[in-house]
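task queued by scheduler; priority normal; single chain, no ligands, no partner chains; default sampling; output format set to structure tokens
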Amino acid sequence: MTETVTTPTPEPGAAAPPPGPRRSYAELAADESREDYSLRYAPHSFRRWSPATVAGTALGGIAYLADFAIGASIVFTYGFGSGLASILTAATLIFLTGVPIARACATYGLDMDLITRGAGFGYFGSTLTSLIYASFTFIFFALEGSIMAQAMHQAVGLPVEIGYLVTTLIVIPIVFRGMGALAKVQAWTQPIWLVGLVLPFAVLAVEAPEAWGAFTSFGGTEGAGAGFSWIGFGLGTGVALSLIAQIGEQADYLRFMPAKTEKNRRRWNLAVLAAGPGWVVIGAAKQLGGAFLAFVALEAVGTTHALEPIAPQIEALKPWLGSFALPAAALFVIVSQIKINVTNAYSGSLSWSNFFSRVTHRHPGRVWYIFLNLAIALTLMEMNMFAALNKLLGFYSNVGIAWIAAVAADLAVNKRAGWSPPYIEFKRAYLYAVNPAGFGAMVVASTVSILAFFGLFGTYAQAFSTFIAAGLAVLLCPLIAWATKGRYYLARPNTVNGPSVEVADERATHACAVCETAYELPDIADCPVQAGPICSLCCSLDAACGDVCRKDPQGAGGPVLMPVPVVPRA
């Protein structure tokens, strides 16, 4: 059993029992130090890290070398001119969509799934996006794991099939412990990673200064030419945009950002900007840098190995390190891949938890879903997904960008226009099952763009399918919200903790009538069935209430909690 539900028996002569049963969670699910409030609002009492620490941990998670492989693949396929334009354009789009999402997650203490619920998708509408996000984490875990296995094969001759298993198992003890362990791993490994990242470029700057000039004339390995091509630009941008869902992993850390105050305002804003959309600045630089290293190593190792980050690293380091180039490069690759794959596994466990809690009304604990995510990733690695990198990522980006663009449009446009509530409502008790504003926009945008991706609308539409996804999502989300007058955002008014309130008021706690645990106000809903407060997780897991609070809130008893004074947050 994932959790135990019991109905208390009254003593003789005692008052009638409370309206609903009591729930006690399994040991793993009940331990929030491991759970990291995986399905909940992150309370102020848990956000004990400084803005700099949260930002450093979040940025540590972008140490991955998939950027190297993606950048090299784009430039090798489409040439330098089209590749450069693709990488910079994708980075710009990712940055712009990431700004409102990062600020919302850091302000409200919510992860990407909970933000999506309240930003135009509805309670069950965001279930599909949980699967999209989960697929992002296991696709990129498999990609990063493949790179790590290649490094171990080069360094010690370990067969890559066994390397796939090793890279999967090594992250489990870290991810099991949650945010605290992840923060330590990212901090401890950061110096090694920074040295390993910069050293190859320093060597080439001294030993082969002419290589940069030659790189700008590189026409790729498939005859694309060094000049600009609209088709190459569109297809290359689609591959680079596959990374757009990375903002979700950044959000998994940003939700632990402390409350913004007058004292920390500047540091808070800088940390959120750097650790949120700012990741793509480093990411774009890594893509171009990875393409450059692969170009330099191309003649020595061949096209196939040049696309594997370990080989270009070795070739770049040889002039200075000689025989030590191999172990130094292997150490850098392994450290980099551990840093990102603990994040992939952690974020995947959060996403699967959100998905299954709504579908099954069960919550065994976040840690169990680590194994599900890693099993899928391991299967993809054994199937050699690395060989189909461009096609897989190009297809995935059509869906990912439709989702992220719709959420960003709601936060940046709908809320400012007043078509969407001015705060993020994530609790089941106040949400419609599906909101057509965000969910409808994503479904239409991704469907049309996927049809374009497979060539239904011609060559140019195929190349620019991701632009179609982004454009339709950004256009349709506000249009649907305006047409429906925002009626599908809230199923009933939230008179308890709806609009933003002062942080002091948010810290007030109420005991959940079901699990009898105290939670801060934003995590509490007004439950007429329980005749008292209910925490967001117990509300999600209730399969027998019939959603009477949403269908007929007044007939079900109306508000049972005192409302909190509405004071706009700074």
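post-processing summary
- The longest helix spans residues 66-108.
- The chain has 24 helices and six strands.
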